[in-house]
Amino acid sequence: MTTKLHIYTSSELERAAHLRVHPDTLQSYRNSPDSLVTIVWRHMGLFTSNAGTSTRDDIEPYFIPASHAGEIFDLAEEVVFLGLRDNRPILAAMLPHSETAPGFSPPELPQGTFLDLRDHWSFLNKEDAAIMAYARGLNHWHKHHRFCGHCGNPTRSTEGGHVLECTGSNCGKLHYPRTDPAVIMRVTDGDWCLLARNAGWRPGGHSVLAGFLEIGESLEQTVIREVKEEVGITVQNVRYHSSQPWPFPASLMVGFTAEGSRHDPLVLDSNEIESAKWFHRDELLASPEDETFNLPRKDSISRVLVDDWLKEK
Q1: What predicted TM-score, i.e. pTM, was given to this entire model?
Q2: Are 79 and 71 in contact (CB under 8 A)?
Q3: What DSSP designation does 55 have?
Q4: Using an 8 Å Cβ cutoff, are 69 and 93 in contact?
Q5: CB-CB contact of 89 with 13 (8 Å)
Q6: What is the pLDDT of residues 184-202, one digit of tens each?
Q7: What count of other Cβ atoms lies within 10 Å of the Cβ of residue 266?
């Protein structure tokens, strides 16, 4: 089976988990001229200072050599080891959650600008986008697990930032990065595809259905339940398609295809769905991609599910 690698999925980064347990090795990476550092502030990553311009050539991720990042390491709440890329250590420096971006200006380097990855992913190559998404996801986990959920004592970072250990003398519980699994499913009936929209989405935005896995469910059961809850129809022939990490803030989107009948009445969950409709293949191929109607974001597995279906004929 061919593995489909979506946006935010890296094929080049070696996670190198065996290196995380060696504190001396990780400390040496901070001083190595071979190491590169991506910086996260709030939910944003660091880009080159001319990234506010509109052309693709002007927007690049800003990976700072670790040998020039001493001031950044001093400011950071945490520095984590992401892995090796072309045998070069990749680190992420997580800055405090301040109202304004912390000031730092390594004299050897130009200025950078903090921007939202989701608004600028299309200007990056796939590997850079994946690394920045990885750093953003770990940053979110660290910020939300400062205290042990078992006893309430503070946690401390170990194993290169991939384990948070409770500091309580009678606890010591280990906490690992969390990912919430969600299903996302393309429901079709012949040349018709079911799309819906949420009131909070951008004008004209439509997508396939999605929902979170509940305790005690298989992924296939979640697909069937979520479609029934959201639009009131029963689907069959549920099949796995592919998956995509979605650290916005902490999900794994597991993609499926399913079949339903467009003749069954749609009964919408008004708390989640503003509208839903069966669209003919020709309608979607002719999508105006404007505020009247547009397909899912191009960085999402939702768009891949739709595009793959459109390519079938």
Answers
A1: 0.92
A2: no
A3: S
A4: yes
A5: no
A6: 999 999 999 999 999 899 9
A7: 17
Classify strands 88-94 and 36-41 as parallel, antiparallel or unpaired. Answer: parallel
* Percent of all residues in the chain with a pLDDT value above 90, rounded to a whole number: 85
pLDDT tens digits along 174-186: 999 999 999 999 9
Enter the tokens of residue 133: 């998404």
Other C-beta atoms closer than 10 Å to the C-beta of 234 total 11
Question: Tokens 């600028």 sit at which residue?
Answer: 120
Q: Report the C-alpha dihedral over residues 69, 70, 72, 77, rounded to 10 degrees.
A: 130
pLDDT number for residue 108: 65
DSSP-assigned letter for residue 102: P
d(CA 138, CA 131): 11
Of 301, 156, 154, nearest in space to 242 by CA: 301
Radius of gyration for the alpha carbons in the chain, expressed in angstroms and rounded = 22
* Residue 27: count of CB within 10 angstroms of its CB: 11
Number of neighbouring beta carbons within 10 Å of residue 218: 10
Which of the 8 DSSP states describes residue 37? E
Answer yes or no: are the C-beta atoms of 26 and 20 closer than 8 Å: yes
**Beta-carbon neighbour count of residue 158 at 10 Å?**
14
First to last CA, the chain: 22
Residues 6+ apart with CB under 8 A from 143: 94, 97
CB neighbour class for 24 (10 Å; exposed up to 12, middle 13-18, buried from 19)? exposed
CB neighbours (10 Å) of residue 153? 16
Tokens for 97, please give them: 């959650």
Determine the 3-state secondary structure of 143 from DSSP: helix
